[in-house]
């Protein structure tokens, strides 16, 4: 099982949107996928049309010492080949993780049994900023996929991910894919920012994917609890290009 974090320290870059599209896209390619929503806003769950009314147990139950919860009890079938573990009480999860002495081992312990469920890919949608939950995720996963909004502040903040990994004593080689998102090819500014992004990561071959254009239909799909593969052919073709690079870079 390949373990991937979708992460950016900056909010508003379309991280949950990218998480959902990649998860469903991999599922449509025939891979068995599980997506863990660890963003406090639960956007990945909502973008798949799953609300709190559909939850039985969540990731929080896995870390609640008063509850002996099997991981299977937290899994929701979201689409064919795609399962979801939602979250609740993210602040309490973060506080609990601060009490753990070995943050590098936390998720291996809390997600015990997951490796036995025959998934090909685990994707974790992370919240923005540096949190103890994200520390645990970065220690646990094999690779990072980083969506970056193609605008100056977001692009120039990319270096912070290297600082974050250094503080955790993790290799920057974990960064496997950069996904330029919300790209407006009509503007000179967007084109310049895309070139800057490519130059910034020029030492890593094929790490920057083709950009995902800013499209109203992508937003509409999420609001309706659908993925682009269910709603808009043109957008789905763009994400399939990203998926090709993902499989090429990660396997």
Secondary structure layout:
Layout (H helix, E strand, L loop, with lengths): L1 E5 L8 H14 L4 E6 L4 H5 L11 H5 L12 E4 L2 E4 L4 H9 L7 H5 L10 E6 L5 H9 L2 E7 L2 H5 L2 H9 L7 E7 L6 H13 L15 H8 L9 H18 L1
Organism: Clostridium bornimense
Pfam families: AAA_31
Protein name: Chromosome segregation ATPase
Structure, briefly:
With 251 residues, the chain is α/β, with parallel strands linked by helices. It contains eleven helices and seven strands. It is globular, with a radius of gyration of 17 Å.
Structural class determined from secondary elements: alpha/beta
Biggest sheet strand order reads 3-4-2-5-1-6-7
Structural domain count: 1
Can you identify the CATH class?
A: Alpha Beta
- CA gyration radius, whole angstroms: 17 Å
CATH homologous superfamily title: P-loop containing nucleotide triphosphate hydrolases
- Number of beta strands: 7
N-to-C terminal Cα separation, in Å? 11 Å
Description:
- Helix content is 40%, strand content 16%.
- A hairpin with a 2-residue loop joins β3 (76-79) and β4.
- It has one domain (2-246): P-loop containing nucleotide triphosphate hydrolases (Rossmann fold), CATH 3.40.50.
- The chain has helices at 15-28, 43-47, 59-63, 90-98, 106-110, 132-140, 152-156, 159-167, 188-200, 216-223, 233-250; strands at 2-6, 33-38, 76-79, 82-85, 121-126, 143-149, 175-181.
- It has 11 helices and 7 strands.
- The protein is globular, with a radius of gyration of 17 Å.
- A 7-stranded mixed beta sheet has the order 3-4-2-5-1-6-7, with helices on both faces.
- With 251 residues, it is an alpha/beta fold.
- The longest helix is centred in the last third of the chain and has 18 residues, at 233-250.
- α1 (15-28) packs across α11.
- The model has no long low-confidence stretch (mean pLDDT 91).
- It holds the Pfam family AAA_31.
- InterPro entries: AAA_dom, DNA_Partitioning_ATPase, P-loop_NTPase.
- Residues 1-170 form the AAA domain.
- This is Chromosome segregation ATPase.
- It comes from Clostridium bornimense.
């Amino acid at each position: 099982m390949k373990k991937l974090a979708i992460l950016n320290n900056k909010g508003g870059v379309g991280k949950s949107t990218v998480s959902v599209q990649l998860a469903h896209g991999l599922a449509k390619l025939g891979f068995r996928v599980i997506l863990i929503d660890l963003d406090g806003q639960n956007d990945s769950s909502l973008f798949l049309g799953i609300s709190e009314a559909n939850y039985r147990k969540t990731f929080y139950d896995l870390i609640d010492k008063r509850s002996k919860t099997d991981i299977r009890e937290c899994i929701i079938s979201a689409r064919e080949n795609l399962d979801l573990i939602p979250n609740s009480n993210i602040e309490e999860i973060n506080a609990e993780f601060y009490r753990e002495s070995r943050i590098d081992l936390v998720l291996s312990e809390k997600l015990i049994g997951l490796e036995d469920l025959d998934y090909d890919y685990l994707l974790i949608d992370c919240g923005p900023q540096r949190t103890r939950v994200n520390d645990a995720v970065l220690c646990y996963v094999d690779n990072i996929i980083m969506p970056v909004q193609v605008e100056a502040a977001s692009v120039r903040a990319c270096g912070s991910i290297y600082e974050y990994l250094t503080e955790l004593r993790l290799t920057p080689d974990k960064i496997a894919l950069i996904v330029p998102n919300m790209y407006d090819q009509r503007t000179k500014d967007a084109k310049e920012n895309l070139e800057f992004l490519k130059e910034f990561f020029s030492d890593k071959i094929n790490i920057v994917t083709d950009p995902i254009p800013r499209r109203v239909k992508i937003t509409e799909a999420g609001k309706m609890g659908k993925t682009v593969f269910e709603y808009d052919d043109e957008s789905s073709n763009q994400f399939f290009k990203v998926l090709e690079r993902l499989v090429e870079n990660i396997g």
